[in-house]
Amino acid sequence: MSAVPVYADIEAAARRIAPHVRVTPVLSAASLDELAGCRLHFKCENFQRAGAFKFRGACNAVWSLPDAIAARGVVTHSSGNHGAALALAAKTRGIPAHVVVPAGAVATKLAAIARAGAAVHECAPTLAARDAMAAELERTTGATLVHPFTDPRVIAGQGTAARELLEQAGPLDALIAPIGGGGLIGGSAIAARALAPAIRLFAAEPEGAADAHASLAAGRRVADLVPETICDGLRATLGEINFALLRAHGVEVLLASDVETVAAMRLVFERLKIVVEPSSAIALAAILRHRARFAGLRVGVILTGGNVDPDRLPWQS
To answer: Which of 18, 56, 170, 253 is the most buried (most CB within 10 A)?
Structure first.
């Protein structure tokens, strides 16, 4: 695989992971279409194995490894979903997995990592601490680092969700996905541009973690913002390769507040009858905040995950 994935890598990833991933459904609701002023096609990756799209990229990375290297295991750092996904992907191949998690991570996500049999290593809740511990585990165990969003194999695997959505929903005018580190929107942009060159591409980002928005505005990667958002899966800093993909494919970043995101999460619960994380619901929140961008269009929306603590739903008092 090249340093920057191309569409052929996404096609290869789709073939590689087909025995292991679920083909997730695409749902719609007339009441949400009316509210948004456009036709929405929700790609429900909350039904993916491990409860999130992350399993696609993790699975592609794990099954891309030669046997001798795979036998030494894999290591990553993650606030939850990527860690759970890599743990499960490693289990499908029968290899060890080590997951570095920041203190304070969502309990349901930590439980999913442990259920899959990975070794969990807690560190301070900073990216520097996560990177340092993951690097030490890589050195001491010989495991292969599978970065949550800058690994080209992960990006290619994530791109299979958009590829699948376009096959299921038919022609789309626009595609939107949440953005944290940028692996999903990077892979989605590659797939969407290959299959629908004129499609409009958007990424939804929290106001309290708007480094991608700031980076595109500045024309350089902004990496010194301190995230403060309910969207725990979107607190990562945009990666270098991911920033390059945003610029190369003309992705526009749209912001939404936490209040708007929680309202959108509740709308998804009420209208689609499914549970998604705030980090998923932000895609709908961004559409509703920026309705003029989407008026009259057929829009693909990637709902990225559903690993929510049922005892801590954000609209509960």
So the answer is: 56
